Amino acid sequence: MGKALIAFAVISLWCTRTLAQEGMIMTVNGPVSSAHMGVSLIHEHVMVDFIGADSTGEHRWDRAEVIRVVRPYLEQAVKKGVKTMVECTPAYIGRDPMLLRELSALTKVQLITNTGYYGAADNKFLPPHAFYETARQLSERWIAEWKNGIGETGIRPGFIKIGVVDEPLSPLHVKLVQAAAYTHLQTGLSIASHTGKAVPALEQIRILEREGVHPEAFIWVHAQAEDHLGHHIEAAQKGAWISLDGLNEANVEAYFKMVKNLKDHGYLHKILLSHDAGWYSPGEKNGGNFRPYTTLFEKFIPLLKREKFSEAEIDQLLVHNPKKAFEIKVRKSTADGL
Is 331 among the domain residues? Predict the structure, then answer.
């Protein structure tokens, strides 16, 4: 096992240097040229454990059982053309890199996992040290996962996932954003933040800019929760990614309105689309209710075509935007004093 991890680390380092010139993403199987990302779902879940940071762990699930339940849904997505899936379950809420690697091998989906901490849901999913360590100390933990792999797995994260909810942000959540900023500047990993409304989204952008991070590194997760579509434009103007990632059969028309609004203002190139679907829930019978990853292809893309979106525009949404958003690249703020 030790030799295998060393070999994996050496190969990953070599690939990282080789692909640096052309752009890369980091999958659970190592670095891949971002040109090979293909059709991508940028916010989905394989498994989520809602029991809390003080009780979760691998003792809560049987990987073979999770694979049995999840594999058909991933294979269904592959049949729709999906090549890459960004798995957004953070640490202490069901992140399992080895599970993702096994599923990737079985289904041929390129899966991307994350580093970072999730502060939403009244901080239920934060480990004790998150409350007293500084932003620098937290970032050192996340940077170590990038450099050395997650735990003993050797698997490296492909982005930073945090979660905030307060308006304005609490000092604890400001610290999470700062830690993400420091991590980005050392790793080039993009920052996907569970946010929702515009007030905390725009506050996070300001914090990142003050710490020297350009908003292009920031993905406003669950931006569909913001009713004032002008705020989507405001964030996109700054360079942030507008992630409309809760697509389901009941909201297809609402999502079209948000996409068209951004397109009409010249920001089609800043939209990310996904379902926030899945997932296996430990402790529930058969893993609970699993929502498929297919509404985008079965309902939303046909609607775009009926509304005269071109194939190039659809490729922009499903291929080119994810590639740019998750490409590993340090994005520094150019605004002095921010």
Answer: no
